């Protein structure tokens, strides 16, 4: 698999539809992700539940978990199956809601919608397949009692928009159950717009903490992770298993409740700008070394600049040189340790060696013989080491994804 960069969201959607048309029409063909009735059972569906599904429907199963662990669908509910595919979960939901309930089965792929329509013709009057996008759900505000979704969100280019749509159509207090792919470490090379990599299910996946945060941002409450699966261990593709392993990919099953009203704009942005959140994102993206170096530089030159400015303004600042030097030294050593730890991933010693030399020069200037040029050279070497470490990590990631770089 070789990726070509620079595709639009529409091209990604086209690639998703092309792939899942193939799953609908040729379910016995080999795919990089697990499919079929055996996958249903492996992911936790009760065998008696699976045995009641039409064989042709179960053959095109392409979910990533058993969302019904959330138990949010009740008799009489009007329920949305978001990303319904061939309709496995729609049929199960239809049995749960009963004749007094309704299931709206929404899928982007026309072939999947048509397959479900043929399956239910004259048999399931409470199931209504429609074609549409999770980013623009064609349903009225607060019209659904519950939503179930299985393996759809990772294929959606704008996840935040899709989550907002789920919140919009749910009634206050409505429930969401969801199974989807998450990753431990984000994909950071320039491949998130590549449709062929997107349908691998890993590139489009969200870091678990970010997924939970996005649900909370729009107003979902009581968000619970119910189960995890080593989903990609079921993949017949060694390459897909390797890619998934390198990013810590798995599938999760979760449930959540819609709040009575959406949070205000100020509250939402306060959540999104929480320092712990964006610092965590920077760390997962590999910027810890640069962040620690920035702290060292701010401690060294930022405090110096503030001290000079205050003196010019007639304000006397009492600054302990020992404490100041110690703080600079601590952040400098932390920077070197973070950069050196990158060897575990990319097996290249040069960033660690360069960082060690830079740290030695800074410490020499601080504690043995101060020369501004020595200190600046030390920080320059640390900056070069941090950049080199980040570059090696990106190249390693690109090789694993089969990208030409």
From TrEMBL:
<keyword id="KW-0812">Transmembrane</keyword>
<dbReference type="InterPro" id="IPR029063">
    <property type="entry name" value="SAM-dependent_MTases_sf"/>
</dbReference>
<feature type="transmembrane region" description="Helical">
    <location>
        <begin position="321"/>
        <end position="340"/>
    </location>
</feature>
<dbReference type="GO" id="GO:0030791">
    <property type="term" value="F:arsenite methyltransferase activity"/>
</dbReference>
<dbReference type="InterPro" id="IPR025714">
    <property type="entry name" value="Methyltranfer_dom"/>
</dbReference>
<keyword id="KW-1133">Transmembrane helix</keyword>
<dbReference type="InterPro" id="IPR026669">
    <property type="entry name" value="Arsenite_MeTrfase-like"/>
</dbReference>
<dbReference type="Pfam" id="PF03203">
    <property type="entry name" value="MerC"/>
</dbReference>
<keyword id="KW-0472">Membrane</keyword>
<comment type="similarity">
    <text>Belongs to the methyltransferase superfamily. Arsenite methyltransferase family.</text>
</comment>
<dbReference type="Pfam" id="PF13847">
    <property type="entry name" value="Methyltransf_31"/>
</dbReference>
<keyword id="KW-0808">Transferase</keyword>
<feature type="domain" description="Methyltransferase">
    <location>
        <begin position="75"/>
        <end position="214"/>
    </location>
</feature>
<dbReference type="GO" id="GO:0015097">
    <property type="term" value="F:mercury ion transmembrane transporter activity"/>
</dbReference>
<feature type="transmembrane region" description="Helical">
    <location>
        <begin position="352"/>
        <end position="370"/>
    </location>
</feature>
<dbReference type="GO" id="GO:0016020">
    <property type="term" value="C:membrane"/>
</dbReference>
<protein>
    <recommendedName>
        <fullName>Arsenite methyltransferase</fullName>
        <ecNumber>2.1.1.137</ecNumber>
    </recommendedName>
</protein>
<dbReference type="InterPro" id="IPR004891">
    <property type="entry name" value="Mercury-R_MerC"/>
</dbReference>
<keyword id="KW-0949">S-adenosyl-L-methionine</keyword>
<feature type="transmembrane region" description="Helical">
    <location>
        <begin position="286"/>
        <end position="315"/>
    </location>
</feature>
């Amino acid at each position: 698999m070789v990726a070509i960069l620079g595709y639009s969201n529409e091209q990604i959607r086209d690639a998703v539809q092309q792939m899942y048309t193939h799953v609908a029409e040729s379910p016995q063909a080999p795919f990089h992700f697990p499919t079929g009735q055996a996958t249903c059972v492996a992911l936790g569906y009760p065998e008696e539940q699976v045995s009641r599904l039409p064989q042709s429907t179960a053959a095109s199963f392409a979910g990533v978990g058993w969302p019904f662990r959330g138990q949010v669908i009740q008799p009489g509910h009007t329920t949305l199956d978001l990303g319904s595919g061939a309709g496995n979960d729609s049929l199960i939901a239809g049995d749960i809601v009963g004749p007094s309930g309704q299931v709206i089965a929404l899928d982007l792929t026309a072939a999947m919608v048509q397959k479900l329509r043929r399956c239910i013709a004259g048999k399931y009057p409470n199931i209504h397949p429609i074609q549409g996008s999770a980013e623009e759900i064609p349903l009225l505000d607060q019209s659904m009692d519950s939503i179930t979704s299985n393996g759809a969100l990772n294929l959606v280019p704008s996840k935040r928009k899709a989550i907002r749509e789920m919140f919009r159509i749910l009634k206050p207090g409505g429930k969401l159950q969801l199974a989807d792919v998450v990753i431990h470490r984000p994909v950071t090379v320039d491949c998130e717009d590549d449709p062929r990599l997107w349908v691998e299910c890993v590139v489009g996946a969200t870091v678990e903490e970010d997924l939970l945060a996005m649900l909370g941002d729009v107003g979902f409450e009581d968000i619970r992770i119910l189960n995890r699966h080593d989903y990609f261990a079921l993949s017949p593709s060694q390459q897909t298993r390797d890619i998934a392993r390198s990013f810590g990919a798995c599938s999760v099953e979760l449930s959540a409740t819609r709040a009575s009203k959406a949070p205000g704009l100020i509250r939402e942005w306060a959540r999104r700008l929480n320092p712990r959140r964006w610092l965590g994102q920077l760390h997962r993206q590999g910027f810890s070394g640069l962040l620690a170096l920035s702290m060292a530089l701010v401690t060294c030159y930022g405090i110096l600049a503030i001290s000079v400015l205050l003196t010019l303004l007639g304000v006397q600042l009492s600054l302990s040189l020992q404490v100041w030097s110690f703080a600079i030294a601590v952040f400098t050593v932390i920077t070197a340790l973070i950069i050196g730890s990158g060897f575990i991933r990319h097996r290249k010693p040069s960033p660690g060696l360069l960082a060690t030399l830079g740290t030695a020069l800074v410490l020499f200037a601080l504690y043995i013989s101060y020369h501004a040029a020595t200190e600046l050279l030390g920080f320059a070497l640390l900056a070069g080491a941090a950049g080199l470490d980040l570059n090696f990590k990106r190249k390693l990631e690109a090789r694993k994804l089969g990208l030409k770089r």
